[in-house]
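for the writeup, i need someone to sanity check this before i put it in the appendix. the sequnce is what the collaborator sent (i think, or maybe the updated version? ugh). structure was predicted straight from it, no edits. if anything looks off just tell me and ill rerun, i have time this weekend
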Amino acid sequence: MQTNPNRTAWEVSEDDYPRLGTPADKLRFMLRYAVLAPSNRNSQPWLFKVRGRTVELYADRTRSLRVTDPADRQLLMSCGCALFHLRVAMWHFGHLDSTVLLPAPEDPDLLARVTLGEEDSPTSQQEALFAAIPKRRTNRQHFLDDPLPEGLKPELVKAAAREQAWLLFVDGRQQRNAIADLIAEAERLQWADKHFRLELASWLHSNHDTAPDGIPNSAQNTGDLLSVAGPNVVRSFDLGEGQAAKDRDIAAYSPGLVVLGTDKDEPCAWVQAGQALARVLLRARVDGVSASYLDHPIEVAAMRPKVTELIGHGGHAHIILRLGFGPNLNPTPRRTAAEVLIRPES
Protein backbone atom coordinates (compact mmCIF):
# COMPACT_ATOMS: atom_id res chain seq x y z
CA MET A 1 0.00 0.00 0.00
CA GLN A 2 1.15 3.51 -0.79
CA THR A 3 1.49 5.84 2.19
CA ASN A 4 2.19 9.06 0.30
CA PRO A 5 -1.07 11.09 0.38
CA ASN A 6 -0.76 12.13 -3.27
CA ARG A 7 -0.81 8.48 -4.36
CA THR A 8 -3.88 7.24 -2.50
CA ALA A 9 -5.82 7.11 -5.78
CA TRP A 10 -3.77 4.04 -6.70
CA GLU A 11 -5.07 2.11 -3.68
CA VAL A 12 -8.40 1.35 -5.35
CA SER A 13 -9.67 -2.21 -4.83
CA GLU A 14 -12.36 -3.83 -6.94
CA ASP A 15 -13.59 -5.55 -3.76
CA ASP A 16 -15.07 -2.18 -2.77
CA TYR A 17 -17.26 -1.98 -5.86
CA PRO A 18 -20.84 -1.13 -4.76
CA ARG A 19 -22.62 -4.00 -6.50
CA LEU A 20 -25.88 -3.21 -4.69
CA GLY A 21 -25.56 0.54 -5.17
CA THR A 22 -27.29 2.85 -7.61
CA PRO A 23 -25.96 3.31 -11.15
CA ALA A 24 -24.52 6.65 -10.02
CA ASP A 25 -22.73 4.94 -7.11
CA LYS A 26 -21.23 2.42 -9.51
CA LEU A 27 -20.11 5.10 -11.96
CA ARG A 28 -18.46 7.17 -9.24
CA PHE A 29 -16.51 4.07 -8.23
CA MET A 30 -15.49 3.31 -11.82
CA LEU A 31 -14.06 6.82 -12.10
CA ARG A 32 -11.38 5.70 -9.64
CA TYR A 33 -9.89 3.75 -12.57
CA ALA A 34 -10.40 6.59 -15.05
CA VAL A 35 -8.17 8.94 -13.03
CA LEU A 36 -5.27 6.47 -13.29
CA ALA A 37 -4.94 7.27 -17.00
CA PRO A 38 -1.77 8.88 -18.39
CA SER A 39 -1.66 12.57 -19.28
CA ASN A 40 0.83 15.06 -20.69
CA ARG A 41 3.16 16.18 -17.85
CA ASN A 42 0.79 14.25 -15.55
CA SER A 43 -1.46 17.31 -15.74
CA GLN A 44 -4.68 15.24 -15.36
CA PRO A 45 -6.82 17.75 -17.31
CA TRP A 46 -10.18 16.02 -16.86
CA LEU A 47 -13.42 16.61 -14.98
CA PHE A 48 -16.47 14.36 -14.70
CA LYS A 49 -20.15 14.85 -13.97
CA VAL A 50 -22.36 11.88 -13.03
CA ARG A 51 -26.03 12.08 -14.03
CA GLY A 52 -27.89 8.89 -13.17
CA ARG A 53 -26.55 6.21 -15.53
CA THR A 54 -24.38 8.65 -17.51
CA VAL A 55 -20.96 10.22 -17.02
CA GLU A 56 -20.08 13.44 -18.80
CA LEU A 57 -16.40 14.06 -19.50
CA TYR A 58 -15.16 17.65 -19.52
CA ALA A 59 -11.81 19.22 -20.39
CA ASP A 60 -10.21 21.11 -17.51
CA ARG A 61 -8.50 23.86 -19.48
CA THR A 62 -7.04 25.42 -16.35
CA ARG A 63 -4.45 22.65 -16.78
CA SER A 64 -3.54 23.56 -20.36
CA LEU A 65 0.10 23.64 -21.44
CA ARG A 66 0.08 26.89 -23.38
CA VAL A 67 3.61 26.58 -24.76
CA THR A 68 3.83 22.94 -25.84
CA ASP A 69 0.12 22.41 -26.49
CA PRO A 70 -1.45 25.74 -27.54
CA ALA A 71 -4.40 24.10 -29.34
CA ASP A 72 -5.11 21.73 -26.39
CA ARG A 73 -4.62 18.73 -28.69
CA GLN A 74 -2.63 16.80 -26.09
CA LEU A 75 -5.06 17.90 -23.39
CA LEU A 76 -7.96 16.32 -25.26
CA MET A 77 -5.89 13.21 -25.89
CA SER A 78 -5.28 12.92 -22.16
CA CYS A 79 -9.03 13.15 -21.59
CA GLY A 80 -9.48 10.42 -24.19
CA CYS A 81 -7.14 8.19 -22.18
CA ALA A 82 -9.30 8.69 -19.08
CA LEU A 83 -12.41 7.98 -21.14
CA PHE A 84 -11.01 4.65 -22.31
CA HIS A 85 -10.06 3.66 -18.75
CA LEU A 86 -13.65 4.36 -17.70
CA ARG A 87 -14.99 2.16 -20.51
CA VAL A 88 -12.66 -0.67 -19.49
CA ALA A 89 -13.93 -0.41 -15.91
CA MET A 90 -17.51 -0.63 -17.19
CA TRP A 91 -16.68 -3.80 -19.08
CA HIS A 92 -14.92 -5.37 -16.12
CA PHE A 93 -17.82 -4.72 -13.76
CA GLY A 94 -20.22 -6.37 -16.17
CA HIS A 95 -21.71 -3.63 -18.32
CA LEU A 96 -21.67 -2.58 -21.94
CA ASP A 97 -20.92 1.08 -22.58
CA SER A 98 -22.66 3.56 -24.84
CA THR A 99 -20.16 6.30 -25.68
CA VAL A 100 -20.86 9.45 -27.68
CA LEU A 101 -18.06 11.89 -28.47
CA LEU A 102 -19.29 15.47 -28.27
CA PRO A 103 -16.63 18.13 -28.74
CA ALA A 104 -18.48 20.89 -30.59
CA PRO A 105 -17.91 24.63 -31.12
CA GLU A 106 -20.92 25.55 -28.96
CA ASP A 107 -19.64 23.57 -25.94
CA PRO A 108 -15.98 22.65 -26.55
CA ASP A 109 -15.32 21.53 -22.97
CA LEU A 110 -17.95 18.76 -22.96
CA LEU A 111 -16.03 15.98 -24.69
CA ALA A 112 -18.11 12.83 -24.25
CA ARG A 113 -21.10 11.17 -22.62
CA VAL A 114 -20.75 7.57 -21.48
CA THR A 115 -23.84 5.66 -20.41
CA LEU A 116 -23.83 2.49 -18.34
CA GLY A 117 -25.30 -0.11 -20.65
CA GLU A 118 -26.87 -3.52 -20.24
CA GLU A 119 -25.23 -6.18 -18.12
CA ASP A 120 -22.72 -8.24 -20.07
CA SER A 121 -19.86 -10.58 -19.20
CA PRO A 122 -16.40 -9.20 -20.02
CA THR A 123 -14.16 -11.00 -22.48
CA SER A 124 -10.77 -12.32 -21.44
CA GLN A 125 -9.16 -9.52 -23.46
CA GLN A 126 -11.20 -6.88 -21.62
CA GLU A 127 -10.31 -8.43 -18.28
CA ALA A 128 -6.62 -8.33 -19.20
CA LEU A 129 -6.87 -4.62 -20.03
CA PHE A 130 -8.54 -3.92 -16.69
CA ALA A 131 -5.86 -5.82 -14.77
CA ALA A 132 -3.22 -3.70 -16.52
CA ILE A 133 -4.66 -0.35 -15.36
CA PRO A 134 -3.04 -0.24 -11.88
CA LYS A 135 0.22 -1.69 -13.27
CA ARG A 136 0.70 0.78 -16.12
CA ARG A 137 3.43 3.40 -15.69
CA THR A 138 5.11 5.91 -17.98
CA ASN A 139 8.60 4.44 -17.75
CA ARG A 140 11.44 6.87 -18.48
CA GLN A 141 14.11 4.49 -17.17
CA HIS A 142 16.61 2.54 -19.27
CA PHE A 143 15.04 -0.38 -21.16
CA LEU A 144 16.59 -3.79 -21.59
CA ASP A 145 17.82 -4.75 -25.05
CA ASP A 146 15.36 -7.66 -25.14
CA PRO A 147 13.10 -7.62 -28.22
CA LEU A 148 9.37 -7.10 -27.92
CA PRO A 149 7.30 -10.27 -27.49
CA GLU A 150 6.53 -12.15 -30.66
CA GLY A 151 3.10 -11.25 -31.94
CA LEU A 152 2.77 -8.03 -29.93
CA LYS A 153 3.32 -5.67 -32.85
CA PRO A 154 0.20 -6.66 -34.82
CA GLU A 155 -1.78 -6.66 -31.57
CA LEU A 156 -0.84 -3.04 -30.90
CA VAL A 157 -1.65 -2.04 -34.48
CA LYS A 158 -5.09 -3.62 -34.07
CA ALA A 159 -5.54 -1.96 -30.68
CA ALA A 160 -5.09 1.49 -32.23
CA ALA A 161 -7.38 0.65 -35.14
CA ARG A 162 -10.14 -0.40 -32.73
CA GLU A 163 -10.26 3.24 -31.60
CA GLN A 164 -10.14 4.77 -35.12
CA ALA A 165 -6.42 5.53 -35.07
CA TRP A 166 -3.34 4.13 -36.79
CA LEU A 167 -0.07 2.89 -35.33
CA LEU A 168 3.14 2.43 -37.30
CA PHE A 169 6.32 0.75 -36.08
CA VAL A 170 9.51 2.52 -37.12
CA ASP A 171 11.72 -0.51 -37.76
CA GLY A 172 14.10 0.28 -40.61
CA ARG A 173 17.48 1.59 -39.48
CA GLN A 174 17.50 4.54 -41.89
CA GLN A 175 13.96 5.52 -40.95
CA ARG A 176 14.66 5.05 -37.25
CA ASN A 177 17.75 7.27 -37.42
CA ALA A 178 15.81 9.96 -39.29
CA ILE A 179 13.11 10.06 -36.60
CA ALA A 180 15.76 10.05 -33.87
CA ASP A 181 17.51 13.01 -35.51
CA LEU A 182 14.18 14.85 -35.74
CA ILE A 183 13.52 14.24 -32.04
CA ALA A 184 16.93 15.66 -31.13
CA GLU A 185 16.48 18.70 -33.38
CA ALA A 186 13.08 19.48 -31.89
CA GLU A 187 14.33 19.07 -28.35
CA ARG A 188 17.16 21.54 -28.93
CA LEU A 189 14.65 24.05 -30.29
CA GLN A 190 12.35 23.61 -27.32
CA TRP A 191 15.06 23.98 -24.70
CA ALA A 192 16.30 27.18 -26.33
CA ASP A 193 12.89 28.73 -25.59
CA LYS A 194 12.74 30.11 -22.04
CA HIS A 195 8.93 29.85 -22.07
CA PHE A 196 9.21 26.11 -22.69
CA ARG A 197 11.64 25.78 -19.80
CA LEU A 198 9.38 27.74 -17.45
CA GLU A 199 6.38 25.59 -18.34
CA LEU A 200 8.32 22.34 -17.97
CA ALA A 201 9.76 23.40 -14.61
CA SER A 202 6.29 24.15 -13.28
CA TRP A 203 5.37 20.46 -13.63
CA LEU A 204 8.58 19.01 -12.12
CA HIS A 205 8.53 18.22 -8.40
CA SER A 206 10.85 16.83 -5.78
CA ASN A 207 10.09 13.36 -4.44
CA HIS A 208 8.92 14.95 -1.17
CA ASP A 209 6.45 17.32 -2.80
CA THR A 210 2.81 16.58 -1.93
CA ALA A 211 1.39 17.97 -5.19
CA PRO A 212 -1.21 15.56 -6.64
CA ASP A 213 0.01 16.13 -10.20
CA GLY A 214 3.19 16.72 -12.18
CA ILE A 215 6.32 14.58 -12.47
CA PRO A 216 8.39 13.73 -9.38
CA ASN A 217 12.12 13.16 -9.67
CA SER A 218 11.61 9.45 -9.02
CA ALA A 219 9.71 9.15 -12.31
CA GLN A 220 12.64 10.51 -14.34
CA ASN A 221 15.47 8.44 -15.74
CA THR A 222 18.04 8.10 -12.94
CA GLY A 223 20.70 9.41 -15.29
CA ASP A 224 18.43 12.11 -16.67
CA LEU A 225 19.61 15.69 -16.37
CA LEU A 226 16.12 16.71 -15.28
CA SER A 227 16.20 14.45 -12.23
CA VAL A 228 19.34 16.04 -10.85
CA ALA A 229 18.89 19.57 -12.11
CA GLY A 230 15.62 20.39 -10.41
CA PRO A 231 13.05 22.98 -11.47
CA ASN A 232 15.23 25.99 -10.67
CA VAL A 233 18.01 24.87 -13.00
CA VAL A 234 15.52 23.84 -15.69
CA ARG A 235 14.03 27.34 -15.64
CA SER A 236 17.40 29.04 -15.93
CA PHE A 237 19.58 26.98 -18.25
CA ASP A 238 19.35 25.53 -21.73
CA LEU A 239 20.01 21.80 -21.23
CA GLY A 240 18.99 21.00 -24.78
CA GLU A 241 22.24 19.54 -26.09
CA GLY A 242 22.50 16.93 -23.36
CA GLN A 243 18.81 16.01 -23.41
CA ALA A 244 18.77 15.86 -27.21
CA ALA A 245 21.77 13.53 -27.36
CA LYS A 246 20.29 11.22 -24.72
CA ASP A 247 16.85 11.05 -26.32
CA ARG A 248 18.32 10.56 -29.79
CA ASP A 249 20.05 7.40 -28.58
CA ILE A 250 16.90 6.25 -26.80
CA ALA A 251 14.86 6.68 -29.97
CA ALA A 252 17.46 5.01 -32.17
CA TYR A 253 18.03 1.93 -30.03
CA SER A 254 14.87 1.20 -28.02
CA PRO A 255 13.36 -2.24 -28.76
CA GLY A 256 10.29 -0.55 -30.22
CA LEU A 257 9.53 2.91 -31.62
CA VAL A 258 6.02 3.72 -32.84
CA VAL A 259 4.06 6.66 -34.17
CA LEU A 260 0.33 6.91 -33.42
CA GLY A 261 -1.94 9.14 -35.46
CA THR A 262 -5.37 9.74 -36.96
CA ASP A 263 -6.65 10.62 -40.42
CA LYS A 264 -8.25 13.85 -39.22
CA ASP A 265 -6.82 16.62 -37.05
CA GLU A 266 -9.73 18.00 -35.06
CA PRO A 267 -10.99 17.81 -31.45
CA CYS A 268 -13.03 14.63 -31.92
CA ALA A 269 -10.04 12.91 -33.53
CA TRP A 270 -7.82 14.02 -30.64
CA VAL A 271 -10.13 12.34 -28.13
CA GLN A 272 -10.16 9.23 -30.33
CA ALA A 273 -6.36 9.30 -30.44
CA GLY A 274 -6.29 9.40 -26.65
CA GLN A 275 -8.54 6.36 -26.43
CA ALA A 276 -6.30 4.56 -28.91
CA LEU A 277 -3.21 5.50 -26.93
CA ALA A 278 -4.73 4.16 -23.72
CA ARG A 279 -5.72 0.89 -25.37
CA VAL A 280 -2.23 0.49 -26.86
CA LEU A 281 -0.50 1.21 -23.53
CA LEU A 282 -2.71 -1.22 -21.61
CA ARG A 283 -2.35 -3.93 -24.26
CA ALA A 284 1.43 -3.52 -24.14
CA ARG A 285 1.39 -3.72 -20.34
CA VAL A 286 -0.51 -7.03 -20.54
CA ASP A 287 2.74 -8.44 -21.98
CA GLY A 288 4.88 -6.58 -19.44
CA VAL A 289 5.98 -3.93 -21.95
CA SER A 290 6.47 -0.34 -20.79
CA ALA A 291 6.38 2.90 -22.75
CA SER A 292 7.41 6.54 -22.61
CA TYR A 293 7.00 9.52 -24.90
CA LEU A 294 9.35 11.19 -27.37
CA ASP A 295 6.88 13.70 -28.77
CA HIS A 296 9.19 16.70 -29.22
CA PRO A 297 8.84 16.99 -33.03
CA ILE A 298 5.06 16.78 -32.70
CA GLU A 299 5.06 19.60 -30.13
CA VAL A 300 6.95 21.88 -32.54
CA ALA A 301 4.28 22.87 -35.06
CA ALA A 302 6.64 23.37 -38.00
CA MET A 303 8.19 19.93 -37.51
CA ARG A 304 5.05 17.87 -36.98
CA PRO A 305 4.36 17.24 -40.69
CA LYS A 306 7.90 15.91 -41.06
CA VAL A 307 7.04 12.95 -38.84
CA THR A 308 4.43 11.53 -41.20
CA GLU A 309 6.63 12.44 -44.16
CA LEU A 310 9.53 10.41 -42.75
CA ILE A 311 7.41 7.36 -41.94
CA GLY A 312 5.62 7.54 -45.29
CA HIS A 313 2.13 7.62 -43.83
CA GLY A 314 -0.75 10.00 -44.49
CA GLY A 315 -2.78 11.63 -41.77
CA HIS A 316 -1.63 13.42 -38.64
CA ALA A 317 0.86 12.18 -36.04
CA HIS A 318 -0.04 12.62 -32.37
CA ILE A 319 2.38 10.51 -30.35
CA ILE A 320 5.86 9.01 -30.64
CA LEU A 321 6.35 6.15 -28.18
CA ARG A 322 9.32 4.03 -27.29
CA LEU A 323 8.52 0.51 -26.08
CA GLY A 324 10.51 -2.03 -24.10
CA PHE A 325 11.10 -3.76 -20.80
CA GLY A 326 12.01 -1.49 -17.89
CA PRO A 327 12.22 -1.71 -14.10
CA ASN A 328 9.17 -1.60 -11.85
CA LEU A 329 8.30 1.92 -10.73
CA ASN A 330 6.19 3.56 -8.07
CA PRO A 331 3.11 5.33 -9.43
CA THR A 332 3.09 9.07 -10.03
CA PRO A 333 0.79 11.39 -8.03
CA ARG A 334 -2.92 11.51 -8.80
CA ARG A 335 -5.94 13.57 -7.93
CA THR A 336 -8.65 11.31 -6.54
CA ALA A 337 -11.92 10.71 -8.34
CA ALA A 338 -13.69 12.85 -5.74
CA GLU A 339 -11.42 15.78 -6.61
CA VAL A 340 -12.39 15.76 -10.29
CA LEU A 341 -16.15 15.36 -9.86
CA ILE A 342 -18.42 18.26 -10.79
CA ARG A 343 -21.65 18.37 -8.79
CA PRO A 344 -24.66 18.37 -11.17
CA GLU A 345 -26.93 21.38 -11.01
CA SER A 346 -30.08 20.68 -9.03
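Residues 73-92 form the longest helix (20 residues). The mean pLDDT is 94.
thx in advance!!
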